[in-house]
Structure formats: C-alpha cells, structure tokens
C-alpha cells in the first residue's frame, strides 16, 4: 500500500483560478474536488500525472545583430524534463541568418518536442 | 520622402505598428518614428508565451506576436525612421502640427494633420518606491534585466530578489529560475499578488519561489555589489511593522514596481492628464485634449494584455482617419465617465453615444460575486470576481450610452 497524498492545485485554465484538491494513492487518483468545470478536472489530472509546460529561452547566435535568438518548444513538454532541456539549449550555437519559426533542435531531451526560433536572426551588416 | 503626412505615429511597438498599419489601410499617408534602432518595442524581449490569445486566437511568444506586425508593416511599405527622436510638437493651427525630429541624418521638420502617440511606459525605479540604503551595482529594473538576458544573453546575477509581484516581476522570476539563478523571493507590498493567477502558478509555484505578501523592501546593503536586502512586514495601511525586519542575502535586486505612461512631450504641449492612469484624458476616439492628437497602448493606460494595446492602436487610427477626413472631430455632446465604488481607473473619459465604445477599467481591491453597474443607463454585468491585476474590458453600446444625459458612473458592487 502506498501512502495517501493530498495535492492542492490552482487551476489556470481560465481566470477563475479554482483551488482544486486531489487525493492520490501511488499512481491512483482517489478523489478530485474544488473544480467548477470539466476542463478544470482534466487540468488537475494532468498536473498530477504528467504536468507539461512550454519552455522558452535564448540561444547563442553568431554573426547577427543580437548575440542571441529566442526559442521555445513547439509544444508543451513534461515539466521534469525542463532542466535537461535547458542544459541542451546551453550547448547550442547557431549561425546567422536564421528565420523565425526554424527548427534548431529536434526532439529536445527526448521530449518529443522540437526547439523553434521565435525571433529572426538576420545576418548583421 | 515627403515633409507632410496625414498622420505621424510616434513609437514602433505594438500600439504604434498596429496604428500605422490601420491608418495605411484607411488610405492615410503615414510615417512612423521609432527612437530605438529597430521596430518592435518591448515584445522583442518578451520570449515567454501568452501573447495573442485574443487577437490571433493562438498562444504566441512576445517576439512571435510582434513579428507578425513587423512583417505586415513592411509588406505595406509604410515609411518609417528608426533612431528618430521627436523633440518638439508645435501646434501650427487647429488642425496642423509641426514636429521637430532628430535623426542620424539630421534634424527634420515634418508637418502632419494628426498625431498618434504610442511611446509606451517607463518602469518605476527604486528611487520611487521608498527603498533606502546603498546603491551598489546589482540593482536593475525588470526591463533592464530582461534586455540583458533575452537580447544580449547575459545573466545579471546569481541570487535574485524581485521587488513586485505584477506580471512583469513574476515572469522575470521564472526567467531567472529557468536560466539557473537562485530566486530567493518575490516581495509584494500588497496583501495579494499583483499579477495574474496563471503567472503566480506557472512562474512561482513551478520553481518553489517564495512570495512574501504584505512585505516591503526597506533597504539595500552592499558595497562593491548588492549583498543583502532588508524586508519588513507592513500593516493594512502599508506602514512598516516595527520588529519584523529580516535579511535576505542576494547579489541582485530586480525592481518590478509598475509602469508609468511615458508622455513627456505631450505634457509639454498641455495635454490634460488623469492622475489615476497617469496618462492623457481622452475621448472615445482616443483623442487627447489637443485636437488631432491620439494616444494608444501603455502611453494611454497600463494594459495587462498586448491584445488590448493593439486594439487601442487600431482605434486611434480610426480616430486619426475621422480627424483627417473631416478636418477635425465635430463638436459632440460628450458624456463624462465617472468612477464609482471600487473603480480605480477607467478610460476613455468622454463618450458621445454615437458609437459603441470599449471601456477599460481597473478595480481598487479584489472582490467576489460582483456586478459592474453603469448608473444612469441602467446597465449591469455580473462577474464571478474582480481583481486589480485583471483589467476589465467591457463594451458599451451606443444606444446605451445615448441614454445618459451628461455622465455615466461605473461602479462595482456585490451581486
């Protein structure tokens, strides 16, 4: 028998910000209360089982007006992978010119998401 | 290059770009002036998502959002100067204005019929929020820190304290944490967070960053570099409680203590301002007290969402068109908007009843189960809650506005 845990989650699906309480035993969800809509319930389940986030940062770029170009994951990734993703991003060095929306790293940290640029990096004159 | 335009837009951020695009689409001759060396404004350094959910129905980063406007602006071939500083506005007639602009190519003198002012806001600095002590290196505003990290790729410090829990402060807390800094605390003087709930959750809870509510930073200490800050609890009147002092060691203090509309040059020509918004007093066309001079975005009122800024930019272009095509805005019977219970600020200040108007307002304090009432026109809107961090954006229909004689009072009351 694993331990019974209570998690408090503030829902961010809409601005209401419901306080949802989730009771779990191991991987099993025993009870969810405090949500006011089905989307809140779904969010709470995801937050407990596999919370995901969009990750954003900047990576170094050579030969452009700015020394960095901003990037993000093209879909939400598991929260626990964030440190590994940041580590992999710190190794990236790009060369201008780079258009906006270009994939610069595929399947970052095995997350299934790609890293795409969110700013263009034109070659500096 | 010409020396006379129907409209000149001052500022190349989201409000300015959207205003210029709309004005061009309206068939006006347009020039945009930007004082930095590239277009885009503050979103260029906003690498986080959360932009464009209303306008594009997509979740974009600030950079992605603004490039959609930059690309459209360039495609339309709108004239613009970068590194251009507007230094003086001269009112040559009731209709025409002359602008003195300093550019790398020399001083320009331009004439325009209408002017759209979209210079955004400045950040409140440590001097304005009563923090005493030393001024060693290591004190930055949030925008400065963001520019360093997200444009130049430089970490401003390792152990960070953030002053202010508005969205800007929360988002910077997350950026620092993501990049591996130790964010010691976010300090908030009010008893509630200043930013949106989603940002409190995704920026602080995700990284276990403590939020100190009802706390004030009283002193910065350090000689060659910031070494620590002193914080105190405050009471409900925001007064320091004796004996509650504690120290937090850190090498960097990031001040995210709010924004103030930046309208210096407008003030010089006598534009009337609202002490609540710190921006100009405007009518439904976003026209200031100087005819043909319009204002949009954070220069008008501090907005939560860039989507609202763009909406205002487009509206100001509608105003400029009307002014140019009709040789001035015809005299209307303006009805005053009046702030009632739990309304801290609202714009626009004057409505005619000749068109539908979007009202932007902010409350003083959080409340649940409320209704927003517009007295004199008997309009009510029920809301589950109001929060100072979330701007109210409500549309008033022209038929409703027309019912009022000389004023409309907006108030928040228990439902």
Throw out a few tags for this protein.
heterodimer, A: alpha+beta, 5-stranded mixed β-sheet, 3-stranded antiparallel β-sheet, B: 415 residues, alpha/beta, 5-stranded parallel β-sheet, 28 strands, 21% helix, 34% strand
Summarize the structure in short:
By secondary structure, chain A is an alpha+beta fold.
Describe this structure in words.
The complex is a heterodimer of chains A (125) and B (415). Chain A is α+β, with helices and mostly antiparallel strands and 125 residues long. Chain A has helices spanning 38-49, 82-90; strands at 4-10, 19-25, 28-33, 52-53, 56-62, 68-73, 77-78, 93-95, 103-105, 115-117. In chain A, the strands form 3 sheets. Chain A has a 5-stranded mixed beta sheet with strand order 8-5-6-10-9. Chain A has a 3-stranded antiparallel beta sheet with strand order 1-2-3, with helices on one face. A two-stranded antiparallel ribbon of chain A has the order 4-7. In chain A, a hairpin with an 8-residue loop joins β1 (4-10) and β2 (19-25). The model of chain A has no long low-confidence stretch (mean pLDDT 92). Chain B is α/β, with parallel strands linked by helices. Chain B is 21% helix and 34% strand. Chain B is built from 8 helices and 28 strands. In chain B, strands 1, 2, 5, 6, 7, 8 and 20 form a 7-stranded mixed beta sheet that branches. In chain B, β6 and β7 form a beta hairpin. In chain B, α1 runs parallel beside α2 (62-75), α3 runs parallel beside α4 (167-178) and α4 packs parallel to α5 (197-204). The longest helix of chain B is centred in the last third of the chain and has 21 residues, at 306-326. The radius of gyration of chain B is 22 Å and the shape is globular. The model of chain B has no long low-confidence stretch (mean pLDDT 96). Chain A binds chain B through residues 10, 12, 15-17, 53-58, 60, 65-68, 70-72, 79, 82, 86, 100-101, 118-120, and chain B through 38, 44, 47-49, 59, 61, 63-64, 67, 149-153, 178-180, 196-198, 200-202, 205-206, 384-385, 390.
């Amino acid at each position: 028998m694993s331990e019974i845990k209570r998690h408090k989650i503030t829902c961010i699906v809409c601005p209401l910000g419901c306080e949802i309480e989730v009771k779990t035993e191991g991987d099993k969800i025993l009870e969810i209360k405090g949500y006011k809509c089905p989307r809140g319930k779904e969010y709470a389940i995801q937050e407990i089982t596999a919370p995901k986030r969009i990750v954003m940062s900047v990576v170094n770029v050579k030969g452009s007006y700015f020394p960095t170009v901003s990037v993000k994951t093209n879909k939400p990734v598991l929260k626990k992978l964030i440190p590994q993703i940041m580590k992999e991003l710190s190794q990236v060095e790009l060369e201008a010119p780079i258009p906006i929306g270009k994939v610069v790293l595929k399947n970052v940290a095995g997350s299934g998401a790609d890293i795409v640029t969110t700013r263009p990096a034109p070659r500096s004159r | 290059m010409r020396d006379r335009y129907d409209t000149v837009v001052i500022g190349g951020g989201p409000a300015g770009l959207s205003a210029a695009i709309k004005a061009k689409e309206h068939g006006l001759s347009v020039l945009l002036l930007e004082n930095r060396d590239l277009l885009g404004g503050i979103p260029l350094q906003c690498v986080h998502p959360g932009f464009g959910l209303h306008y594009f129905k997509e979740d974009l980063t600030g950079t992605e959002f603004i490039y959609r406007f930059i690309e459209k602006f360039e495609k339309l071939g709108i004239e613009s100067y970068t590194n251009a500083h507007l230094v003086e506005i001269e009112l040559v007639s009731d209709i025409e204005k002359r602008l003195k602009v300093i550019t790398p190519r020399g001083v320009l003198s331009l004439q325009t019929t209408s002017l759209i002012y979209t210079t955004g806001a400045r950040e409140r600095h440590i001097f304005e929020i009563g923090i005493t002590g030393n001024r060693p290196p290591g004190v930055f505003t949030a925008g400065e820190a963001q520019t360093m990290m997200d444009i130049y790729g430089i970490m401003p410090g390792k152990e960070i304290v953030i002053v202010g829990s508005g969205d800007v402060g929360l988002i910077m807390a997350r950026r620092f944490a993501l990049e591996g800094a130790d964010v010691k605390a976010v300090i908030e003087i009010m008893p509630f967070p200043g930013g949106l709930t989603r940002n409190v959750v995704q920026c602080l809870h995700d990284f276990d960053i403590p939020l100190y509510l009802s706390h004030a930073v009283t002193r910065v200490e350090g000689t060659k570099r910031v070494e620590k800050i002193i914080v105190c609890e405050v009471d409900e009147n925001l007064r320091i409680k004796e004996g509650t002092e504690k120290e937090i060691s850190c090498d960097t203090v990031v001040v995210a203590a709010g924004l103030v509309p930046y309208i210096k040059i407008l003030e010089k020509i006598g534009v009337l301002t609202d002490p609540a918004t710190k921006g100009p007093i405007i009518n439904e066309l976003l026209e200031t007290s100087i005819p043909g001079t319009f204002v949009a975005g954070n220069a008008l009122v501090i907005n939560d969402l860039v989507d609202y800024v763009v909406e205002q930019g487009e509206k100001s272009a509608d105003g400029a068109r009307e002014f140019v095509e009709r040789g001035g805005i015809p005299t209307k019977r303006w009805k005053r908007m009046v702030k009632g219970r739990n309304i801290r600020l609202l714009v626009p200040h004057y409505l005619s009843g000749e068109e539908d108007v979007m009202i932007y307002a902010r409350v003083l304090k959080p409340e649940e189960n409320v209704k927003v009432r517009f007295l004199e026109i008997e309009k009510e809107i029920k809301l589950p809650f109001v929060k100072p961090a979330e701007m109210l954006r409500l549309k008033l229909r022209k038929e409703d506005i027309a019912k009022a004689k000389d004023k409309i009072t907006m108030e928040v009351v228990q439902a």
